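Box 3.1. Reading complex inputs
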Amino acid sequence: MIRIGIDVGGTNTDAVAMDSSGVIAGIKASTTADVMTGVVNALRAILDASKLEADAIDAVMIGTTHFTNAVVQRRDLAQTAAVRLGLPATASLPPMVDWPDDLKAAIGNNAWLAHGGNEFDGRPVSDLDEAELLGIAAEIARRGIRSIAITSVFSPVSAEMERRAAEIFEKAIPGVYVTLSSEIGRIGLLERENAAIMNACLRELSTHVIEAFRAAISQTGIKGRFYLTQNDGTLMDAAFAEKFPVLTFASGPTNSMRGAAFLSGVKEAIVVDIGGTTSDVGSLHKGFPRQATTAVEVGGVRTNFRMPDVFSIGLGGGSRVVETANGIEVGPTSVGYKLLQDALIFGGSTLTTSDIAVASGSADLGDRAKVAHLKPEFIGKVREKMQQMLEGCVERSRLSDTPLPVIVVGGGSILVDGRIGELGVIKPNHYAVANAVGAAIAQVSGEVDRVYVLSQTTRDQALDDAKAQAVDAAVAAGAARETIEIVDVEDVPLAYLPGNATRIRIKAVGELHVD
Amino acid sequence: MSTKGYTLTERDLVPLSIGAAFLGTGGGGNPYLGMLRTREVIRSGGVARIVPLDALPDEAWVGAVGGIGAPVIGFEKIAEGGECYRAMRAVENATGKTMSALIPVEIGGANAMAPIIAAMMAGLPVIDGDGMGRAFPEGQMTTFSIYSDGRRDGPAALADDKGNVVVLQHAINAVWSERIMRTVTVAMGAGAGAAGAPMSMEFVRRAAIPNTITQAIEIGQTVVDARAKRQNVVERVVEATGGTLFFAGKVTDIRRELTGGFSRGQAVIAGIDQWAGAEGRIAIQNENLVLWIDGKPVITVPDLIINIELDTGEPLTTEVLRYGQRIAVIGLPAHDLLKTPEALDVIGPKAFGYPELTFSPLAFKRAAAA
């Protein structure tokens, strides 16, 4: 299978072409203001570089920050209705209670509480009230709202009420978009509801963006299927992505870590992705990034997405180097995408980390004569400072004292020369386009998160049941059943509950099934 | 109402939630939702007066209220809002006594806020103190219960989100009360508001751990300020609380198991800095119970063992402890009311299943360590 992976970043749009034996070619193109021109340019460039015909491409995988940016910048967001099923419970905190005011205003602050919801063991909190929901539907229609997010208490245990409510709204308001929280997030009502509402407000934008990506791809003559990468490093096909744009959030760091694992062939490691302004550091387990367990904020809103646990520091290839009374400062300010104009080695007047790498002889870039005046002692001090910064964040990401290798990827990888602390460094081929590689090799996943009452079943039965559900979810998302593996099992006993209730979270991952 | 004390403002709530998590010693649940709920009630006009122990006359009646149930349930089935208030009113109806103020059962974690919300709904002040000075897992582990002066246990009440209210007329002792209340709570959906029998202010003055709401706000404010000024949060918190930094390191192992409805386990920490090469071990049962360093017990319940994140100062509940976290372990001496022989029978190391350990108060350890 021949695939193209694309990573649309703020500065560069990277692309790689891959077949079953690995990377055929990789390129970097500039991201354009209209994004799609940059994607078309990158696609044309990668077809050129790989000498592949457009019709030889089976699939295109795109990792994009488009939807995250829309929320962060509060633009292109649709008026959205948040409907929560749970009364009389949950009345103390209405939907969007902890959102920034400007974001709430941008999507209209339309929220309703209705009866419904389940207890942890599946009993209803109260019955669904059809008349109540029809009244809400009439008000939603009257306000001209086209997208609804429905969240029901304990819907990860039973999604039935969310589904019933969706049927009622879809019938009452033909053509309305409905997002169900149970299809997006985990246990934790406010965070899951937040994610569902954000998904709903991106729903109209996603239709346009997916269509534009589709058009960009077909412009280049490629006829293969097209996928977007989601935040757990797995794929969703374009139709699914259109329904769940919120799942693209934070897919960038995940893609780079997955790409690092693939390019190096190492599955247990610390990954350092060095860009122009920052370095993102995370740890790989079985080839996947470790997930954050605490709530993650996007655009000022708490969510419980499956985000990679990544730690960022202000050290990149464009970081400014300044000598002050307190010693040498590296970053966090950066010349960013202006590196090719501003750095000394490119004829500019700003001393950057890239200049230090060239001056010390560890990188060959630009005009070395332009940094010949830097004193060896000074160069040594700056390198020591950079080394300390890297060591600190790598140490933070380690899970144990086991000496794991550090895989260094990203355009700023030239900053690293030799070991980081006591750990060996791997700088794989194609390190600069690891993001795009991560997109190209992405697999397909299914996940389950629910509470089992172990007095009614055994722990093994509960785990088996959850595993079977996770595998089915992966198949439904497009994985080839025979390739599916369980990659993550977490079972956390719930304190204070007699009957040994246990929350079980399982993730299954498989290769993309292509007909 | 008394002129003593102060009115809680919205700005106090983030510090209060951080301080409550700190004093929760790993348990007590995450106060984030309680913080939001308190904020919502304040924004809709609620007034929370925090008054010291000497603000009310001896004969005034005071009610201890708090949430009961599994923390994770509270995160999914958010409260209706009036649970503790309805439980408190049910106790008043059952006893014919009218509450003049409410007081937290425990200052640790989410239960620091529950009485503040109920008090705002009832228009009552909140006594600056609580029945634990920290968090403990069960109702009989409060100073209100330990020093009950032979009062019978009850009436107590539970109220759920749906409007169900159950009054426990009489329990033969606090352990039975706890057992019955938990069972009813599960029937109610594993989360409910609970209120204990009215206590006289004269008794509360003798039995409560004083000033803990204010203490929690001050601890939280120290963390917030240190972060804003980019100071060493651990150092600042240790200074501000009079505690001792006992260990710093990286969590290298977490073992959890469920026995008798409680999450028990151990965290293993590999030392860094001055503790490089040493191993810390913490026994947990919802809360942190014992700290060993290189096999030697250093702190035990009821003294406070607090894990905070090394860089941010964020207090870590035992539920979110995980591999790789870099933490500081701070010890804080428990209030004297928690260290009497009758208290140690209930909340000492032996009561938590460590018959081989004898409680030796932290103040002594601090002198030895210095």
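In summary: The two ends of chain A are 11 Å apart (CA to CA).
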